[in-house]
Amino acid sequence: MKKYLEQPVHIAPLALFRIMFGAVMFISVLRFWLMGWIAELYINPSFHFTFYGFEFIRPLGIYTYLIFLICALSALGLMLGLKYRISAILFFLSFSYIELMDKAYYLNHYYFIAIVGFLLIWLPAGNFCSLDTRFNYTKTYTHVPRWCVGSIRFMLCLVYFYAGLAKLNTDWLVHALPLKIWLPSKYDLPLIGGLVDEIWMAYLFSWFGALYDLTIWIFLLYKKTRKFAFPVVIIFHVCTSIFFPAIGMFPYIMIIGSLIFFDEKMALNLLKWFDKKKETQSILLEKKLATLSYILIPFFLFQVLFPLRFLLYPGKLFWTEQGYRFSWRVMLMEKAGIATFTVKDLKSSQQRIINNGNYLNATQEKQMSFQPDMIVQFANFLGNEFKKQGFQEPAVFVECYATLNARSNQLLIDPKVDLYGKEDGFKHKGWITQFNHEIKGF
Amino acid sequence: MKRTVLVAGILSLIIFACKKTNNDDNGADGFNRQLILINMADSLILPSYNDFQTKADVMVSNIQAFTQNPTSGGLAQARTAWLDAYVAWQKIALWNFGPAMNLNFISHANTYPADAVKIDQISDGATYDLNSPFQKSIQGFPAIEYLLYGNNKTDQEIISSFSSSSKSLFINALAKKINDLNKSVLTSWNSTYRQTFINASGVDRGSSLGELFNNTYLPYLEMHNREAKFGIPGGQRTGTALPGNVEGVYSKIHSKALALAAFNAYKAAWYGTGYITSKNGSSLNNYVIFMDRKNGTSIASTLNNQFQATEAKISALEPDFRAIAQTNPAKLQDVWLAYQQMVVTIKTDVASALSVTISYTDTDGD
């Protein structure tokens, strides 16, 4: 095993991945900036949904732009392979900071990007086809131990596998939900617009999607099937992008991600576009397995186990969302809710019914209205606000109705429970209601 | 060779599928969403703007006639024209997107309570600017109402107050401003916006169904019906009733007529009821029924019951909401609750069933 992991393989796929990843990240950050989302999502709102354990990570007012600037420049650094290690560290830190500022904007692919950023810190992706080697800041290596390329491959396989596993439930497979709801809204697409109302389309998409996630990584791993698998990856993700434009950069990230599966020849062919110089073979051997043993293996163990934490919670995962994030559950459910908060002063019996829009933007309000951990955060914020305004003993109640995959709405939170002082965290939230329906499977 | 056959096969399949689309628009399986937009534009929106234009014209001329020759007959005619136009306004206020939104028609025409102190100063000759975003509460129907009814004034007092030329000029300017705004909106709809509207397919941001949903069907219902007409004067959120904040506070007897007109217009928008024909055409309700059948749900009938409950609650009120807010604000809060039931259904079940985009940032569908 140790020998297998240390066996030298060509660095080209890793270098190619680094270049494309840096480029797509640079474009992503630029797009975010140009859409005006930095101000709209991070600077303007008066309240942010922090992550449990990361409450100190918050937007920094006007300096938030600086974090995005660092992120964009370090992405550029990754792409060019300029001061690679520093770029990777800065990218990981700045990107993670951005994503941890507000969970209302959490996306699985943002988490994936942060993970890749972390892995790149430890991998010698800058030692080939980079400005660092051109300027002799660092040595050129044509070959690196297998685990260097394998780390990113493993992570991608894991993402696909868990994304597929998450689809093995009765809603997805038996009822073709939520695609049965989502597809009809795409009635205006060219060519297939007329078919979106057909029920079999929803089943076809559901089953193919599950099969794709569960197996595509296998076809990418094997040399014989790789050249067929790669076009399938492109077609699949371009299709998802056409059907669901709101998923943003995700399809492109997955497409460039799969470049890491390329073999030496294919990767070198593509790298010629960037660097025509022929390299003489030089093998990186001293790259310590210690990095692997002490950092990456525990890290991967965490990655394997963390998505399974939902098994430890009572209640239906889709309903309670306890253990939902950081688990590669993508496009899995159609959920919508409305949360009406009442703040009462138990001393004076004054009460206020809150207009959420006074504190949150549309995205925050929408996300909060069906996610219990965000609801309790907002309830605590409201309690504190009203304490400042003179409520002596504030209590916060919420009447929250949510609908999941086209079932009629029901109460999500026990409306009699005072949420003020209730903690967000990993413990089971007893004040989430029972889901009235059955969903079997993962 | 094999590959060519395969490609040709796939292509012909796609073309076949395409053709099917075009022929099958009204088929059993499909549901033609564009018909909703055409019905909304041609049977509801345009006729309502045209009707409002007629009434706004009458209001302009009656107010002019009254100010030129302030008599009690003239005052009565000015008030009737004001009320007719105000009721007609309730039937266009909900189209708060596109041209109307660009001009911020809704806050120019109907910000209440009117700022009585400032309006008195202007009547005495102070300067004003109807285009200023900070002077919304000196204009529109509530301001005209204040000028035509005053605060506990006799008709004779009102009539003689119009001997002031600055007051006469001001009320004419107010009527003209509303009229001008509607003319611009109507011009936009008649020139290009109708076509833009019925062509903007899909349910994403920027689509017409998205616009309707994210302006007319939700925030309008929440802010301009539930909150403004009932929640704020009834003190629903604060526990403190604000009788001075009812719509139609100076004329006293028209609050209910205005609220019912707004409710009925909203209901018509939901059922695609023609403004002139009163017949139900292709509507969002049909779309919800279509999805109900697909998903085995009964959202349309739930909402229908909630419409009836809300209507019953409003109908049971006395015409003067200010009196209600002073003596029994719980009655106004009851209507707030009835509207809130509708909001819950629309924000959860309907939004989900139609997959309308509510926020505009990236999502991964949770």
Automatic annotation (TrEMBL), chain A:
Boundaries of every HTTM-like domain copy: 6-266
Annotated TM spans: 12-36, 56-75, 110-131, 143-163, 200-222, 234-262, 292-312
Native source species: Paradesertivirga mongoliensis
Principal subcellular localisation of the protein: membrane
Coiled-coil features, chain-numbered ranges: none
Keyword Transmembrane found: yes
Subcellular location(s) of the protein: Endomembrane system
Sorted UniProt keywords: Disulfide bond, Lyase, Membrane, Transmembrane, Transmembrane helix
Stated name of the protein: HTTM domain-containing protein
UniProt topology in membrane: Multi-pass membrane protein
Pfam families: HTTM (PF05090), VKGC_lumenal_dom (PF22777)
TrEMBL record, chain B:
UniProt xrefs under Gene3D superfamilies: M75 peptidase, HXXE motif
Location (main, coarse): other
Subcellular location: Cell envelope
Domain Imelysin-like: start-end pairs: 45-333
UniProtKB keywords: Signal
Pfam family for this entry, one: Peptidase_M75
Name of the protein in its database record: Imelysin family protein
Species assigned in the record: Paradesertivirga mongoliensis
Record lineage: Bacteria, Pseudomonadati, Bacteroidota, Sphingobacteriia, Sphingobacteriales
